[in-house]
Specification:
Length: 170
């Protein structure tokens, strides 16, 4: 599975070097990945905490921290080759998990598909023409969690869809 986030956080991956480490969003993401059995060790919000992922890679739609944490089209387009190279490095990739609409839209565009045919929605499952499956989730940001847009139960439900799709692909 490839988890596609938005962009590195200013105090998170931009400082720690590990996606979602050092910022609030990683707390829910790594807790739930551990519950689903895709990690070992204890996540301690440091790159050297011994926490490792299994069958999961995490990347972002945008490689650098964007102003106001909202990338513009030019930034997304400039970073697309990085996203493509991350996907191509995973020879057994079956499922992508888009964290939020920007990650979803970027993934759809990266494959040259029309967004109108693949609408973003929490827990939406999209079987793509290239054989991959895209599962959507609301982003695990502090704002979404604090406002109840995304709960741990909702996120685990989306991850359960990912796990089911991974099992179907074997």
């Amino acid at each position: 599975m490839l988890v596609v986030g938005l962009a590195p956080g200013l105090k998170g991956a931009n400082q720690t070097g590990r996606p979602f480490t050092g910022d609030f969003a990683g707390n829910l993401l790594f807790k739930c990945l551990h519950i689903m059995g895709w990690s070992s060790g204890n996540f301690d919000n440091r790159a050297d905490d011994g926490f490792t992922l299994s069958d999961v890679m995490i990347t972002n739609a945008v490689r650098c921290v964007p102003p106001q944490n909202k990338p513009i089209g030019e930034e997304i387009n400039n970073c697309r080759p990085f996203l493509v190279s991350r996907m191509e490095s995973l020879s057994k990739l079956k499922v992508l998990l888009a964290l939020g609409k920007i990650a979803h839209d970027t993934t759809i565009r990266t494959f040259g598909l029309r967004q109108v045919d693949y609408k973003f929605g929490h827990e939406a499952v999209h079987h793509l023409p290239n054989g991959l499956t895209l599962v959507d989730s609301y982003h695990c940001s502090r704002y979404n969690v604090n406002t109840g847009v995304l709960t741990e139960e909702m996120f685990l439900s989306a991850l359960s869809l990912v796990k089911a799709e991974m099992s179907c692909s074997k």
